[in-house]
């Protein structure tokens, strides 16, 4: 005769947590991979004021120009000849990148134009110049 196993009061029902933990880790990996991190230019500049300035969607690439003619990208100083190579490298990381030029109000206009020319040569047409609203 076969014996039946009967449930006793001491037996407790347990829930297996392994599938839920797997889902949580998969979601964590998904959010880490799909998150884009903002990289600042690395310095603060005294931006000019503009009455007609508008808020732009966030840019991925920031280039800061100081009043003394220094160019900063990703917290480091670069010269004008290296701007294009740096922008091309960043463009390879995020193909839909936009550039924000943060020029000091005392920066020479010619340097801003040279930087914009290097960015265009790297293949980015979406260039914004940062200004303070009045």
Automatic annotation (TrEMBL):
Coiled coil: none
Subcellular location: Cell membrane
Protein name from the UniProt record: Biopolymer transporter ExbD
Top-level taxon of origin: Bacteria
Annotated transmembrane regions: 20-38
Native source species: Ferrimonas gelatinilytica
Pfam families in UniProt: ExbD
Gene3D superfamilies in UniProt: 3.30.420.270
Protein family according to the UniProt entry: Belongs to the ExbD/TolR family.
Topology with respect to the bilayer: Single-pass membrane protein; Single-pass type II membrane protein
InterPro entries with a match to the protein in the record: ExbD (IPR003400)
Entry keyword Transit peptide: no
Keywords assigned: Cell membrane, Membrane, Protein transport, Transmembrane, Transmembrane helix, Transport
């Amino acid at each position: 005769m076969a014996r039946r196993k009967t449930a006793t009061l001491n037996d407790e029902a347990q829930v297996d947590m392994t599938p839920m933990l797997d889902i949580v880790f998969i979601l964590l990996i998904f959010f880490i991979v799909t998150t884009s991190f903002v990289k600042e230019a690395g310095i603060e500049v005294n931006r000019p004021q503009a009455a007609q300035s508008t808020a732009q969607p966030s840019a991925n690439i920031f280039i800061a120009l100081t009043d003394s003619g220094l160019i900063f990208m990703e917290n480091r100083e670069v010269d004008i000849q290296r701007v294009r190579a740096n922008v091309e490298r960043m463009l390879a990381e995020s193909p839909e990148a936009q550039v924000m030029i943060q020029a000091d109000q005392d920066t020479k206009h010619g340097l801003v134009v040279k930087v914009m020319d290097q960015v265009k040569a790297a293949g980015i047409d979406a260039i914004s110049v940062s200004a303070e609203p009045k």
